Amino acid sequence: MTNMKQIKKIFIANRGEIALRIIKTCKEMGIKTVTIYTDEEKNLPHSLAGDESYCLGSGPLSETYLNQDKLITIAKKAQADAIHPGYGFLSEKAIFAKKVESNGLIFIGPDSLSIELMGDKKTSKIKIQELGVPSIPGYHGDNQELSNLKNEATKIGYPLLIKASAGGGGKGMRIVEQESEFQSALEAAKRESLNAFGDDTVLLEKYITSPRHIEIQVMSDTHGQHFHLFERECSIQRRYQKIVEESPSPSVNAELREKMTAAAIAITRGINYRGAGTIELILDTDGSFYFLEMNTRLQVEHPVTEMVIGLDLVKLQILVAQGDKLPFKQEDLKQNGHAIEVRLYAEDPDNNFLPSTGIIKSIGETSVLHTRLDCGYVDGNEVSISFDPMLAKLIAWGENRNVAAKSLALALDEVLFLGVQTNRDYLKRILTLPEYLEGKTYTHFVKTYENKLRPQEKSKEAKALAIAAFLFSQKKSSNEDVSINNKTDVWAALSGFRNI
Amino acid sequence: MKKQFVLDNEIIDVDVIEENPSFVLFNFNGEEYSVSLGGANQGKMVLNLKGKNRPIILADKHYVVDGREFIIEAPMRSRSKTRGPDLGQMKSPMPGKILKIFVKVGDTISIGSPLLVMEAMKMEHTIKSSKEGKIEAILYKEGDQVAGGVELIKLC
């Protein structure tokens, strides 16, 4: 469906940093925005950041950010032309996209059919195979007899993975190194799976010992143009969530990039996709890659792509949604330099990444060149357990990977989120680890280098300086008196600033 | 003058030899430090040690030096926090929902015994015992929503 209507007002069906991110683009394009918030969020910056704001009340998410009818009613009342779903929440709910459109509003995202097709693991894999893109070899069939599964296992080859069909979170999962271990591993996986999910159906998959997570950013308009915006690497993860993302990938060369982006375009063209999307791939050490899934929305880590190709992805989404033809050609797009993003989380990385809460006393700001902070909080805000523990994204660009990593580590010295336990220091440990700089970025990075990523001893001198700062801050009020009364002292004390 | 502070939860001794509003000389860990205050703004301070400017970022009890965060408090305040009512109690480390309780009244537990599973921020966390003893009371049941820092389990 082609909309040919200029969007003048966007209802943002999201919160936090992504709501603020969308507003930035809208302001630049002269588009009005509508933001929403819950009773608990009145002091968070996204709440009143739109030209208009509506309170969703309180209660569980099903009554607030996930209440489709409530959101559409507000959007219509505010006379918005379009709804931007951001990421998470309703962004990949086909029924929501459908409802938005049947209510006469533009959904800034793909057609509901694309969301439905790619949102289902089975249908998406079948479609992807039809389009000639490889997915991880495996057996997902109903015949669960031992002899059949053993046969299929031999076809796939070892090592392989036995997974609970209904599963998640590692339950009912077994890695089998060789055929002789297959039967006992299968029995254990089935037992565990039956206990955890009440269903002992398993699936088999080729096990990739050292995988990398590579994804291709895609963008398609409604005039038959399907673009790729190159790759991102997001191998470094904890608890199956990405924490460091970058573009280009240090493990993708020109030839591999050509193959991966061609596969991505084959998919978007093959399903007649619209808008922004991400094709997630698993890359093996031998250069073979497999389709993992497609995210039919804007990605958390989209800023790294923006910094490398110099385009605003939210703007492209809006242009596509109002039916414009994107004004460039694939060959105009070039990767320039390198960008890395880290996700700052309210958690304790040295205690099993346990989430933390608290009042933010000082976020700080980055003074490092070519850095960007996408943040959903201001000083004084409370970090509660009601929402995702991601506090902000910090992104740095450099002419090459080492420069970007160095800049990002420097910026992490300044973006502090004092008052809340965060993974800030941990992220800095990753960025400065020699193995990271050498590009040894596999999805089990956090586990592999667990020992090397432990906190380093704080230096005696840094401790002494902190003590001195403490002593001075205790004297602060009397210090101010002296500054006024004793001019010579003040000038002497300020000598270090003179050449600024 | 000998002073005591709590630095990152550890009690430390500092011998302040000389102190005025823009200069301190103190002995810490067997070494002498002579630090002058260059200037201070809201949330920032520039100190001078051995002729070099050293910027510090601070807020409340948090002090950041070269990107490393230190928490420094006067000893009185922090003692009341870590001591006292804590004895014989097991508190929730964070706000969340109790999904599963593994123990019952009368059970003898040791350090590291799994007590219960809490869900916070859509993730499950197993809470283990940090003490030994016999369970006198369990103050919540499965499915309950609890605040952070509240007593969950009482030991005899």
Strand order of the largest sheet of chain A: 14-13-10-11-12-15-21-19
Principal-axes shape call of chain B: elongated
What does the main sheet of chain A amount to? 8 strands, antiparallel
Give the radius of gyration of chain A.
Answer: 25 Å
Number of helices of chain A: 17
Quaternary arrangement of the chains shown?
A: heterodimer
How many domains comprise the coordinates of chain A?
3
Distance between the termini of chain A: 58 Å
Mean of residue pLDDT values of chain A: 92
Strand content of chain B is over 45%
C-alpha-based Rg of chain B, rounded? 22 Å
CATH architecture of the largest domain in chain B: 2-Layer Sandwich
Instruction: Classify the secondary structure makeup of chain B into a structural class.
Output: mainly beta
What profile does the largest beta sheet of chain B have?
Answer: 8 strands, antiparallel, barrel
Roughly how much helix do the residues of chain A carry, as a percent range? 25-40%
**H/E series of chain B, N to C?**
EEEEEEEEHEEEEEEEE
**Overall pLDDT of chain B, averaged?**
85
Distance N terminus to C terminus of chain B? Answer: 43 Å
* Spatial order of strands in the largest sheet of chain B: 1-2-3-4-5-6-7-8
Fill in the keyword field for this structure.
heterodimer; A: Rossmann fold; Dna Ligase, domain 1; D-amino Acid Aminotransferase, Chain A, domain 1; 5-stranded parallel sheet; 17 helices; 22% strand; globular; disordered C terminus; B: 156 residues; Glycoprotein, Type 4 Pilin; 2 domains; 8-stranded antiparallel barrel; 4-stranded antiparallel sheet; 1 helix; 61% strand; elongated
Structural overview:
The complex is a heterodimer of chains A (500) and B (156). By secondary structure, chain A is an alpha+beta fold. Chain A folds into 3 domains: 9-108, Rossmann fold (3-Layer(aba) Sandwich); 138-206, ATP-grasp fold, A domain (Dna Ligase, domain 1); 212-448, D-amino Acid Aminotransferase, Chain A, domain 1 (2-Layer Sandwich). Chain A has 17 helices and 21 strands. In chain A, β16 and β17 form a beta hairpin. The longest helix of chain A is centred in the middle third of the chain and has 17 residues, at 254-270. In chain B, 5% of the residues lie in helices and 61% in strands. Chain B is built from 1 helix and 16 strands. In chain B, a hairpin with a 2-residue loop joins β5 and β6. The relative contact order of chain B is 0.13. Chains A and B meet through β17, α15 and α16 of A and β2, β3, β4, β5 and β6 of B.
